[in-house]
Design a protein that fits this description.
The complex is a heterodimer of chains A (347) and B (352). With 347 residues, chain A is an alpha/beta fold. Chain A has a single domain, classed as Rossmann fold (3-Layer(aba) Sandwich). Chain A contains 11 helices and 7 strands. Chain B is of the alpha/beta class and 352 residues long. Chain B is 36% helix and 15% strand. Chain B has 11 helices and 12 strands. Chain B has a 7-stranded mixed sheet with strand order 2-1-3-4-6-5-10, with helices on both faces. In chain B, strands 7-9-8-11-12 form a 5-stranded mixed sheet, with helices on both faces. In chain B, strand 8, helix 7 and strand 9 form a beta-alpha-beta unit. Chain B is globular. The N and C termini of chain B lie far apart (43 Å). Classes of the chains: A alpha/beta (347), B alpha/beta (352). At the A-B interface, helix 7 and helix 8 of A face helix 2, helix 3 and helix 9 of B.
Chain lengths: 347, 352
């Protein structure tokens, strides 16, 4: 009896709890995101685009997050205030590869900004993915707005805001903590800090005296966790628990996900593969194969299919037009430009 | 007649009842104070925020994206500078998202001198506000326009920065807001909170009606054929007084154009007045050096040079870091009626 009892209390393998199909979905999405980011980096270096900034190395956290979003428009669905390392999250939600490639080309067909914004600056109104901004951390101040609307509305929709460790030094991070914890109106916000240990070239260890960024939650008596963001399974369950809490309690939760940063900050730091950083996809594949959930051939096929998909998108984008000079004007005002608006740029 | 503060309050009430305004907020905006200038007293959706301008503007943007038609306040424009990048985001999001997101919000903030506000309660914001391209910017000079501009701002699908000339907030208007009681004391009793014991106080709102001042439309505040003053906000009543004085002393008739909207501005109105008089003075209380009036002056020179009788002028505040507390310092910094009169005499006396 004792033996049986002990066996039933032994923690079940979390991999089995997710299930093979879901695990292989996660793997496929992680690979697609990596291939996409490597293609974008290549384009930035070959003159087919300009500045690159993105999120290779964060796939193990961002894919499980993207898969658990309550996707749709309006306050009953999740709002996403993301930053520029979110391609894996967006692919997991269903964004097509080609739109990132179009934005890298600054093509007129870039649906997110018509050639105006850097790559990985996405917005999708029909999924509540609000406009992204290259300015660090401002999304934490804007997140409270959608969350106030959701706090009023009730239901299950929450606001998810995603940023980095260095950005948490900005006042906007504090703004989000304070406003989300106002006793008169707590907010259903999942605050995510992806901690890759660096702000551009500056190690966090020299700038941040707090032991964990998640410790900021202690001042507010709100739940927070520091997790291994290189482990998609640990991430999946931590995100699930946090989102459940936000959805049901209508209160904030903070996840600090420790991840790698595989190609540095951006073009500004060279965008070269960094040695010594753990690769979350390689680690995941090891685990999948160890458990017999995937064979090497199947894994190779996933990479091959992602490369083919990316190449197709890349080839298709090649012949698409650049914006025209007159395309600087649309979108200035919702009702169009008044006839007498100054448009000459001088005398 | 309503004061400008009451007019804005009535407009916000109308917005709550009829235009989908769900959140009116900022520092001390909700009860018990209802705003440091009483602009938000008694409004059912008004609430107090943390003392955090970045949070206020950020929340307004998020609320706008969630369809709440927010009206946010920054208590004095002097405090708005730490949120400037968020205002820029509000302004550029429609454009940078290729038109996929609209950001219908109103940010209101008191501006300008005239209440002995010293260095940090006297700033103007016109020039910075008009550099936030994509943002619409309005500034009323009287209660009826304040009402109509607020309704227009709330209805608009773009972000609107609503500059409140703080020296005029307690000035009563000369025209009734549609639906406003004729007796101003009756209005005070209906919608002004008592000084004490306001816990259980509730306003009795008059049935104010829809009245919109279209964004981008100026008003001829005074007609005249001899010279034009182009101005807005607090400088409008000063311009009118100076024009009156010049009419009495010199017999000259000065036209006063009240811009009302700075972005977009009513170039057609400005142009036709400038063509009519050939003598133009741009007047505002923002400091010179990259002053909004300088833009208007430059465009006037570019497009109307050969139709002008004399060189156009700008009368603005001195380019010093702040407005000093002493009335001597404030008056020496910000244009006064006597300065406007002097400028008008010069403008009118120069040979064509």
């Amino acid at each position: 009896m004792a033996t049986t009892s002990q066996a039933s209390k032994a923690p079940a393998d979390p991999y089995l709890k997710i299930g093979k199909d879901r695990l292989l979905d996660i793997h496929r999405l992680m690979v697609r995101a990596r291939i996409l980011e490597e293609q974008l980096i290549k384009m930035s270096k070959s003159g087919e685009g300009f500045f690159w900034i993105g999120g290779p190395g964060e796939e193990a956290f961002n894919v499980p997050l993207g898969l658990q979003v309550l996707k749709g428009s309006g306050v009953s669905h999740d709002y996403l205030h993301l930053h520029y390392r979110s391609s894996a999250l967006l692919l997991a939600m269903g964004a097509p590869m080609i739109d990132f490639i179009r934005q890298m080309r600054a093509a007129a067909t870039d649906p997110y900004s018509h050639g105006r914004n850097f790559v990985n600056h996405v917005n999708v109104p029909e999924w509540n993915v609000v406009p992204m901004c290259p300015t660090i951390e401002v999304q934490y101040s804007m997140a409270i707005g959608t969350a106030i609307a959701q706090a009023r509305a009730g239901g299950r929709g929450v606001t998810i805001v995603n940023g980095g460790d260095a950005g948490s030094a900005e006042g906007d991070f504090h703004t989000c903590l304070v406003w989300s914890n106002r006793p008169v109106l707590p907010l259903p916000v999942l605050m995510v800090v992806v901690n890759n240990g660096f702000g551009i070239s500056t190690p966090a260890s020299g700038q941040h005296g707090e032991k964990h960024i998640a410790d900021w939650t202690k001042a507010f008596d709100m739940p927070g966790k520091t997790i291994d963001g290189n482990d998609p399974v640990a991430s999946y369950f931590a995100i699930s628990e946090a989102l459940d809490y936000c959805r049901s309690q209508r209160r904030p939760y903070l996840i600090e996900a420790l991840t790698s940063r595989l190609y540095g900050h951006s073009s500004s730091s060279g965008a070269n593969r960094i040695s010594g950083e753990a690769d979350c996809i390689a680690l995941f594949e090891e685990q999948l194969m160890k458990r017999g959930l995937a064979a090497q051939e199947a894994v190779d096929a996933v990479w091959q299919a992602a490369r083919a998909e990316c190449q197709d998108a890349y080839q298709k984008s090649k012949s698409e037009p650049q914006p025209r000079p007159e395309d600087i004007w649309p979108g200035m005002f919702s009702s169009g430009l008044p006839d007498s608006y100054p448009t000459k740029g001088g005398s | 007649m309503a004061t400008m503060a009451q007019a804005i309050r009535l407009a916000l009430h109308y917005g709550e009842e009829n235009l989908g305004v769900k959140e009116i907020f900022g520092e001390d905006v909700g009860p018990p104070l209802g705003g440091v200038f009483t602009v938000t007293q008694g409004l059912k959706t008004a609430w107090n925020s943390p003392l955090d301008e970045r949070g206020i503007i950020g929340a307004a943007i998020g609320l706008a994206w969630a369809g709440s038609r927010p009206v946010a306040e920054v208590q004095f424009s002097d405090y708005i500078f730490n949120a400037i990048d968020l205002l820029k985001l509000a302004a550029n999001s429609t454009w940078s998202s290729a038109g996929r997101f609209r950001t219908p919000l109103v940010v209101m903030t008191p501006v300008g001198a005239g209440i002995h506000g010293s260095i940090y309660h006297s700033h103007s914001f016109d020039s910075v506000a008009t550099k936030l391209h994509g943002m619409k910017v309005v500034c009323p000079s009287n209660p009826l326009d304040a009402y109509g501009l607020m309704l227009a701002a709330i209805k608009d699908d773009d972000p609107v920065l609503y500059l409140k000339p703080k020296a005029l907030l307690r000035v009563r208007g000369e025209k009734l807001i549609p639906g406003e009681p004729k007796d101003s004391r009756a209005l005070d009793e209906m919608i002004n909170a008592p000084i004490t014991n306001r816990e259980n106080w509730k306003p009795r709102w008059p049935a104010v009606e829809d009245y919109t001042v279209p964004l981008g439309r100026a008003r001829i505040a005074r007609e005249g054929a001899d010279a034009t003053i182009v101005t807005h906000g607090r400088m409008v009543p000063i311009a009118l007084e100076a024009a009156q004085a010049v009419a009495q002393s010199a017999g000259s008739q000065v036209e006063v154009v009240d811009l009302r909207s700075l972005v977009p501005y009513d170039w057609d109105c400005l142009k036709s007045s400038a063509r009519k008089t050939g003598r133009v003075l741009f007047l505002n209380e923002e400091t010179e050096i990259t002053n909004f009036g300088e833009h208007l002056l430059r465009r006037t020179v570019d497009e109307l040079f050969y139709e002008l009788k004399v060189r156009p002028r700008l009368l603005a505040a001195k380019a010093v870091p702040g407005i000093g507390l002493s009335p001597v310092l404030e008056n020496a910094t910000v244009p006064q009626k006597s300065d406007v009169e002097r400028a008008l005499h010069e403008l009118l006396s120069e040979a064509a």
